[in-house]
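This section describes the prediction task in plain terms. A model, or a person checking by hand, is given the sequence of a single protein chain and must write out its three-dimensional structure as a string of tokens. No templates, partner chains or ligands are provided. The sample shown here is typical of the held-out split.
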Amino acid sequence: MEWLILVFILISILLFGLSFFAKDKQKEMKEELDHLSLQVMGDLYQVKKRLRVVEEEMLTVSDPPTSSTRPQANDELVKEAYQLFQQNNSIEETAETMELKKDEVKYLLAQLN
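The expected answer:
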């Protein structure tokens, strides 16, 4: 009986010692999950960064404005805008005189270059 208790105590000490050397599967899973979450966060950051660049490009690239109020040829509009601008009219005054938007007048004047 004493031998049996002694054997059980030795086995328990041996198993307790082996438990420190055994691989911890939960630890491995946690490390893998941490790695994946960091990777996803990095990918998300890259996507947001690219999206911000694309949005900035979309804002800076504007299509030439079209005027629906005056059905004149583009060359005539450019000439008229240039003449008004040469008379020391501001862009706002030129836009008001030509019944266009300021951006449209700027676009017309930019075509002279």
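For orientation: The chain has five helices and no strands.
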